[in-house]
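Protein modeling request. Please complete all fields; requests missing the sequence field cannot be processed.
Requester role: graduate student
Desired output: 3D structure, token encoding
Chains: 1
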Amino acid sequence: MPGILLPHEILTELTNVAGLIVDEVMACDDGAFATNGATPAAYNVEHPIDATVIGLLVGRRLVPEDELEELGTGLFLQDIGKLALPPALVHKPGPLAPAEWDLMMQHPLLGVEFLRDDSIPGTAKSVVRSHHERWDGSGYPSGLVGEEIALFPRIAAVADVFHAVTSERYHARARPRHWGIEMIRAGSGSAFDPGVVEAFLDVAGD
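Delivered output (206 residues):
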């Protein structure tokens, strides 16, 4: 599957869904978000939706309104590379072995391979490629540091981690919302862009 472009009709359907989420978020009052606490079986479906909502609520404090659709597309597609991984790996209960983590960490680059034509904007693709990069250079796949990481994936990093840690996953139990907020706060300046963290805390009402 790696190296194969997703069919145009599937990409169109996915970007249309992202656009609907953008429209819903833009119609909402500027209040704190809620989390759904996805179950392990539902996580891979709910995570792109909920992380997109969180990322857009943060993003509308940081980027012009006319760029939010591209941000939403990137957020919604950020984990699409996992489609190229064995389902037994993606759904494995318990911790991953080192070799399995090495394979899992390929999903950002696999996702870019799916989207390598011109139908998806480069800013959205940057989210797919770099949402696991970290402000201090400890992330992957390229170990980018600070503003070497584009703003959109810096927003996605916060939204992705917060929703993940507050959801039931196959390899980890859900943490309470306040725990997730404190984790993001503690990561300011190390894992996460301090400006994005500030906007996130504003959205979280904390």
